[in-house]
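Feature request, filed as a ticket because there's no other form

It would be nice if the structure record came with a short human-readable summary line next to the tokens. Right now we just get the raw output. Example of a typical job, pasted below so the devs can see what we mean:
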Amino acid sequence: MIATNAGHPMSDERFMAMALSLGRRAQGQTWPNPAVGCVIVAHGRVVGRGWTQPSGRPHAEPVALAQAGDKARGATVYVTLEPCAHHGKTPPCVDALIAAGVARVVAAIEDSDARVSGQGFAALRAAGIEVTTGVLADEAAADHAGFFLRIEQGRPFVTLKLAASLDGRIATGTGESKWITGPKARRAVHAVRARHDAVMVGAGTARADDPMLTVRDLGVEHQPVRVVISRHLDLPLLSQLARSADEVPLWLCHGPGADPSRMEAWLNVGAKLIRCTVRGVQLDPLDVLHQLGAAGLTRVFCEGGSALAASLLAADLVDEMIGFNAGLAIGAEGLPAIGALGLDRLANAPRFELTQTTAIGLDVMTRWRRAMA
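Raw output as currently delivered:
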């Protein structure tokens, strides 16, 4: 019988918070797998730490177990998601935990993947390991929301970013947009990009701004996938996106009527083409997200433009909004951050709940989550 390394509710929450923090280090790098954090504690001391490694393996638990070594025997393991119980490209994490002789596993939340759901906990209990669940479950649910959405609905979590003036404009009437917000806010945007699997923009933004959509000046080695929504693939082949497509992943979502010569040209520069269905005059945003989910993405950071933002909001596909507002006014002739939604009643407007307000340099960042019904 394994000796129990009993825990206390307060210490359980403290060590789980540490595990959640570790897991966040991996966000944007592990898709299609979840970004999990793990902490191993023996006699009140942390003896092992781990988080899911790039491309999703090895998982957090074996990384932490390798660091803990023999100290894992009789220890308590804190993990932000139920340990996997199925054979994939790596052996099940529950087998590694059982073999290491841990006494107790504290998990924040159950895995909704049918290959795991409840089976990991059952295997641990069958081996005589004490299992505690639900510690900081809400925080874990937020961190793993993209993984759960892909498993349950087939689409990634969508964060919509709006960098705008006080009156909600993203450019002047002449199209000038650099720079509405200051350097500190722009640096914060890069940090948010790094925690997403992909950065997504519409064709209009790609043509007008000629963006790179990469993470810069943060010492980050990995880059998110760059996704451009362009029904007709009418994007400039001399753009920064085209010139860097063989170095940083570039996925182009297009309609069935795209010109074959344009398709061939983009394939030749290294882009991945994703055919999507059309709804009205635009690509169907739900089908776009389903296609991205099928390709493995769990977290997508949408940076505009206004038409794409409106289509996602109208289809109720925005899970989180991040606003960066500068202390200037542009006026009605400026380009609005969100295109026409066709609303005639306030009751039909998309609603979000404020979760964070932070001053960043001379600008203000606000974070909003989908309002609960």
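Something like this underneath would help us a lot:
DSSP finds twelve helices and 18 strands in the chain.
The first helix runs from residue 9 to 24.
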